[in-house]
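Cross-check.
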Amino acid sequence: MMVAAIVVFATLGCALTLIAMPTPRDPAEVLRGRLTQEVAPKVTPSRWRYRSAIRIANPIASWRRSRRSIEFRHQFPDALLLLCGALRAGLAVRPALESVTTDIDGPVGEEWRQALLESQVGLTLDAALTRVAERTQSAEAGWLVELIAINREVGGDLGTVLTTLAHTLRERERQRRRIRALTAEARLSAIILCLLPPAFACYLTMVRRDYVGVLFTSPAGLAMTATAMGLLVVGILWMRMLVSAQAQP
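Predicted model, tokenized:
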């Protein structure tokens, strides 16, 4: 009897021990739980940092894209003259572009080299040059594509036509720069007039905070501040419209 009781109690003790032991978990679940505990608190700040970086980078990228488009526009007439010389030497359009890309650097040379590479992997030359016009947002590059397509259909002296286009674009760029030089004083005056009210308001806030505080605490002051800001925005837009001297394509 005593032996039977000992066996029963030992069996119960083993059963209770097995019940009390933690159930083995799947390694994948363990890893998933650890990742959830360790990484989850960091996901939201990381996403916030990424979004902040993207928001900061977008204006910088837009500014660099516009600068590259301006450089492309400035260099394009000279590249056209080189292309005209190659065409008059007896080369076809593709070999002429290849010869020009070996002699010219900058945005035009890079974009034309990219177009030649794209034409070698499946695109037509017209489609590749159209993509150049889209990337650089250049109407002049689009005119080049149209002239090449028209010359392929009806024939003619493409070199002479491109020479005329190059001289026209060069004169157009010269007039644009002349207009910018003539309006430089007006643009500087507009910048000073736009920056003067906020700068003076910041100065008064630092020197006479109680004097300026009335504009932000009383209903009449808030109305005056809102009216002044609205008039300032209208004045900025009006001066920008007056001094903007971008030549129409």
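The CA atoms of residues 105 and 150 lie 28 Å apart. The domain at 65-182 is CATH 1.20.81 (Receptor-associated Protein). Passed to J.P. for a second look.
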